[in-house]
Specification:
It is built from 16 helices and 3 strands. It has a 3-stranded antiparallel sheet. Strand 2 and strand 3 form a beta hairpin. The protein is elongated.
Length: 320
């Protein structure tokens, strides 16, 4: 029976028996591959990757087929953590792809705080062999680390066959693998609270604490705007037209926003909205994604939305 299970997966997933020799591998059961929860998780991860890499015109259609060579992980790491690794952009041979993955996964594991490789649910060989389970585990870990505000489908579990091949034969065992936690559990509820947007948490505090943080952020803004002879006194109103926000982003990120690209003296709502939208697009291009911020909110002088943008800049350039 165990051999039958293995043969079934070998036909479905084109697994080479020799590649298992001396190893333990986990294969998702065909029935679980059709689970709507798994399908939803895969689609959320694909959408997240494509949104993150949209400025670079990289489009992922399949987690199994599009991530094994390291290109997507390389660009994700660059945009999410501002890390530029000394690896070639395109790797056409297996040897070059594996060498690239070695560098990328070593950096990723360090960023994810993983020290014990024996506990890691992915490795170079699994990713390069297009192992869906390992690829999803890595992507979920990256989301939790770099973009914890992204809502992943909760309580996604799959049935897997844990296979071990040795000289004595094939040993297999059916197990349940957890891909995302159940958000209804107490421990996970706590982690959700801890991962709540810091500005949302801030605005729940006493007024004097909120004002203290606002002053710190305004001081940071004015320090960087002083070279242009500009001072900001009102956090929400003075950012509503997008002009100061664009100038601040250019100053902090070290580039000039051409005056022809935005309205320096906007006179109506449409021009203000254009400016703010451009500012958020520029933030996205620099790796600072603001998924919970709508340009209209900033134009409407929503202090929460404005604070989220300024805090993201403050956090990045203050190194906190």
């Amino acid at each position: 029976m165990e051999a039958d299970i293995f043969e079934y997966h070998k036909e479905e997933d084109t697994v080479n028996v020799e590649s298992f020799q001396g190893e333990k591998r986990k294969l998702i059961q065909p029935t679980s591959l059709k689970d709507p929860k798994l399908e939803k998780l895969k689609q959320v991860l694909i959408d997240w990757i494509n949104k993150t890499l949209n400025p670079e015109h990289i489009v992922v259609q399949s987690l199994e087929e599009d991530l094994y060579d390291g290109l997507v992980f390389h660009h994700l790491l660059s945009r999410l953590a501002s890390v530029n690794l000394p690896v070639e952009e395109i790797s056409l041979t297996s040897v070059a792809q594996i060498r690239k993955l070695e560098v990328i996964l070593a950096e990723l594991d360090q960023r994810l705080g993983l020290r014990d490789s024996s506990q890691t649910k992915w490795n170079i060989k699994l990713i390069h062999n297009k192992d869906l389970l390992a690829t999803i585990h890595l992507l979920v870990a990256m989301v939790k680390c770099f973009q914890p505000e992204l809502d992943l489908p909760p309580n996604v579990k799959v049935e897997v066959v844990a296979v071990e091949v040795s000289s004595r034969g094939i040993k297999s065992d059916v197990q349940t693998e957890v891909l995302t936690e159940d958000t209804n559990t107490g421990s996970d509820s706590l982690s959700n609270t801890e991962r709540e947007d810091p500005i949302e948490q801030l605005l729940k505090l006493e007024a004097h604490k909120v004002n203290t943080v606002k002053k710190a952020i305004l001081h940071f803004v004015n320090q960087n705007m002083s070279t242009m002879g500009l001072q900001v006194a009102d956090m929400d109103k003075q950012f509503a037209d997008g002009v100061i926000l664009l100038l601040l982003i250019g100053q902090l990120e070290g580039f000039f926003v051409p005056l022809c690209d935005f309205n320096l003296t906007p006179v109506n709502h449409s021009e203000m909205l254009h400016n703010v939208t451009l500012a958020l697009d520029l933030l996205n291009d620099t790796g600072l994604q603001m998924p919970g911020v709508n340009p209209q909110d900033i134009v409407s002088e929503d202090v929460t939305a404005t604070l989220k943008v300024l805090y993201a800049l403050f956090k990045k350039h203050k190194g906190i």
